[in-house]
Amino acid sequence: MTEPADPRPTRAPRRDAARRREALIAAAAARFAEQGYGVPLETIAAAAGVGRATLYRNFVDREALALAIFSSAVDRLEAMIDPQAPIAATLATTVRAGTGALSLFARIAADLHLDDANRAAFQQLATRMETMFAPVLAAAQARGEVSGEVTPRDLVLSMRMAGSVVLPFMDEAEVSAKIEVALRLLLNGLRPR
Questions:
Q1: 17 with 68, same domain?
Q2: Which of 51, 88, 128, 149 has the smallest count of CB within 10 Å of its CB?
Q3: Helix axis angle, 62-80 to 41-48, nearest 10°
Q4: Do 70 and 46 belong together in one domain?
Q5: Is 3 among the domain residues?
């Protein structure tokens, strides 16, 4: 007697697992922002609609969850980058898109307890940002928009600086104005002399 075929699609478990992982990342970002880094992991799991065991299958510790939040933010930024766009436009777009992650990092940075592996993972994320913006910088330098002395690390630091002027209570017009002023000041300092 043959067994009946399993009617479930073979890819559904992977898709479901990916959705659960994304739900955990989104829930963690929201809970860390609202309640701080010490929020109970059960609260994050419940907000994502999963159990604590599912959380731990996806993330070995709180720091791995934080890293996943920031890695997802970098993924989103990478998808937006156009090295051929003017540097001011690229920076404005990425600063605006990255302010949530920057604010969250500022809020939880003091509470992160990084062992060597997690510290290395965060450093790899910083290196990835620099690598990601290297072609943007090279194109801007070739167009004469940025001094040849500026490094990808300088560019990433300038974006962090510009993002720090945005506060959670600001409306969209205020956010745009603050980013525009901050980037104008920074770009004037980055331009060739």
A1: no
A2: 149
A3: 50
A4: no
A5: no
Confidence of residue 8 (pLDDT cuts 50, 70, 90): very low
Would you say residue 151 lies in a domain? yes
CA distance 70 to 91: 18
Looking at the predicted structure, is the pLDDT value of residue 49 above 60? Answer: yes
Using alpha carbons, list the distances in angstroms from residue 107 to 91, 93, 111, 113, 144: 23, 22, 8, 14, 36
CA distance 12 to 30: 27
Query: Where residue 33 sits, what CATH number does that domain have?
Result: 1.10.10
Distance between CA atoms of residues 10 and 13, nearest Å: 7
CA–CA distance from 110 to each of 37, 54, 105, 113, 148 (Å)? 9, 27, 9, 8, 34
Q: 61 in helix, strand or coil?
A: coil
Minimum mean pLDDT range among 19-28, 47-56, 91-100, 130-139: 91-100
* Residue 163 belongs to a domain: yes
pTM (2 d.p.): 0.78
Q: Name, in order, each residue with C-beta under 8 angstroms of 98's C-beta and a sequence gap of 6 or more.
A: 73, 77, 159, 163
Return the number of other C-beta atoms located less than 10 Å from residue 93's C-beta: 16
Say if residue 160 is in the same domain as residue 177.
yes
